[in-house]
Design goal:
With 293 residues, the chain is mainly β. The chain contains 3 helices and 18 strands. The strands form 4 sheets. The chain has a 6-stranded antiparallel β-sheet, with no helix packed on it. Strands 4, 5, 6, 7 and 8 form a 5-stranded antiparallel β-sheet that branches. The radius of gyration is 20 Å and the shape is globular.
């Protein structure tokens, strides 16, 4: 029986002239669009069949997110710091709704120097009038949920901002006011876009502008300073053949410039991970690739 080994295909994009020094180390804010495995597809089909057998009342008791066998998008926070594990019990913090599958994000959303938490939650609003009033076609209301930290391990009640969908979120201060903002990537759409949500300083957010990233869907992206000017930029890789590396340079005021592109020699990698792999201070990316052995 053949064994499959996972290898990393690393592309040092920092060697290209379009990419400069990376001033925000860690690459904590990035999203990935993994290609589903046969096992994942089979599991999804099984869950779909089980859901179809449920009574109508049970299905409507708590509507869940729509699932797709072709693309599953999520955001992850990466941190290579070494830690010693040791925990004590703490009070659970209500998130203000049913949490979606993507991990929460950490930031300082009110500029007080204390760590806050952000996640995407879902609430069901009963009654057609309530749904139509909020501009939704179903009973699911998707929101950003921010719980502001008190600095002693406790948090304030969740503040909700309706964003309409559960696409991955990236966190960073894009307008230079000392409060972290949110960039939401609509990676599975064609064309793919990002929306900017600026922090109001109280755990809520105001929608800024929307920008097209690529005419195609995206395989992954990162919010980082890719040209060394101290302003956060958006860098993403689309799923075309050949793939394009798309960069939206930040202006530092919550807006971004039009996307520019670099063409890859082959299709854009899936399951892409961004980091500085060779220590030169420039953005690289890698893709885990199965090989027979």
């Amino acid at each position: 029986m053949k064994k499959h080994l996972a290898t990393l295909a690393v592309l040092a994009l920092g060697t290209l002239s379009s990419f400069g020094s990376q001033t925000h180390a860690g690459y904590q804010n990035q999203f990935h669009v993994p290609q589903p495995t046969k096992q994942a597809k089979a599991s999804l089909q099984k869950r779909t069949a089980q859901e179809a057998k449920k009574p109508a009342a049970a299905k409507g008791s708590r509507p869940g997110k729509a699932e797709s066998v072709s693309r599953s998008v999520y955001a992850t926070a990466h941190d290579s710091s070494s830690v010693t594990l040791g925990f004590v019990s703490a009070t659970q913090i209500p998130a203000g709704g049913y949490a979606y599958g993507q991990p929460g994000q950490m930031g300082d959303f009110n500029g007080d120097g204390k760590k806050d938490l952000l996640t995407v939650v879902e609430n069901y609003v009963g009654g057609i009038s309530a749904v139509v009033a909020r501009g939704h076609s179903s009973g699911n209301v998707i929101s950003l949920s921010a719980v502001l930290g008190n600095g002693n391990g406790t948090f304030k009640p969740a503040a909700l901002t309706d964003i309409g969908n559960q696409d991955p979120i990236l966190v960073g201060d894009v307008n230079g006011d000392g409060k972290d903002d949110v960039v939401q990537a609509h990676a599975s759409a064609s064309p793919s876009t990002v929306d900017v949500w600026l922090s109001n300083g109280d755990g809520t957010f105001t929608q800024g502008q929307s920008y097209q990233v690529s005419p195609a869907a995206l395989n992954g992206g990162v919010l980082a300073d890719v040209n060394g000017d101290g302003k956060l930029d958006v860098l993403a890789i689309d799923n075309q053949t050949p793939g394009l590396v798309r960069t939206l340079l930040g202006n530092g005021d919550g807006t971004f410039q039009a996307a520019t592109s670099i063409t890859l020699p082959s299709n854009g990698p899936s399951n892409v991970i961004f980091a500085d792999f060779n220590g030169d201070g420039k953005v690289d990316f890698a893709e885990p690739t199965p090989t027979a052995g």
